[in-house]
Write a structure and sequence with these properties.
- With about 200 residues, this protein is an alpha+beta fold.
- It has a single domain, classed as minor pseudopilin epsh fold.
- The chain is about 25% helix and about 40% strand.
- The chain has one helix and 13 strands.
- The chain has a six-stranded antiparallel beta sheet with strand order 5-4-3-8-9-10, with helices on one face.
- The longest helix is centred in the first third of the chain and has 50 residues.
- The radius of gyration is 31 Å and the shape is elongated.
- The relative contact order is 0.13.
């Protein structure tokens, strides 16, 4: 703090004047700010990766349960049942569809949506894969046979993957942030096996 003496109408006035410290930031202050920014960035990135891994795992579990439910519905309930897997906007959608009889249209009975950001969702038919579907562009329809519980059709467009190229099964692959979740669909038994 600095005192300034001046004369005002014949009186001497003492005034306090603050000095401004215009020296800028010290190196230590800059390093502390940079360290804080780095920590916040790392924590945010880890949180985002955990979120995407959780979404991918949930997508895999919902896929498994929906296909299992499709087999049960086809063999025990009236009407025709199918599962449709597709991308709608920014989401992957797994829908359980039902129609009463051959003269009616399919209606959605149940649906699951999952954000598609940073998640790769594909289907490989057989090992090694002879055919592949990518759900970012392709739509798949799965149907079961009512009498024996076998997979009747796994259709992408007009292509039916069941027993194509002597494949006995197909694998759904969901990838995100270095993590992979898979579910295998066996055509002869209609069984779905998930590894995660």
């Amino acid at each position: 703090m600095k005192f300034i003496w001046r004369c005002e109408m014949g009186k001497i006035v003492c005034e306090k004047k603050r000095q401004l410290n215009n020296h800028g930031f010290s190196l230590l202050e800059l390093l502390v700010v940079m360290a804080i920014i780095a920590v916040v960035t790392v924590v945010t990135m880890i949180g985002i990766n955990v979120l995407y891994k959780g979404n991918a795992k949930k997508l895999n579990k919902n896929l498994y349960s929906t296909i299992s439910e499709l087999k049960t519905n086809t063999m025990s309930k009236a009407g025709d049942w199918q599962v449709v897997i597709k991308k709608d906007g920014g989401d992957y959608v797994i829908s359980m569809m039902w129609k009463k009889d051959s003269s009616s249209e399919y209606v959605e009975k149940d649906s699951y949506r999952c954000g598609a950001g940073r998640i790769s969702f594909t289907y490989e038919n057989g090992t090694p894969s002879a055919a592949k579907a990518d759900f970012s562009t392709d739509e798949m329809v799965i149907e079961y046979a009512r009498d024996n519980g076998q997979v009747k059709a796994v259709k992408v467009g007009s292509d039916n993957y069941v027993n194509k190229d002597d494949a006995q099964s197909g694998t759904f692959i969901i990838k995100t942030s270095g993590t992979e979740y898979t579910s295998e669909l066996w055509y002869a038994t209609g069984k779905v096996i998930t590894t995660n």
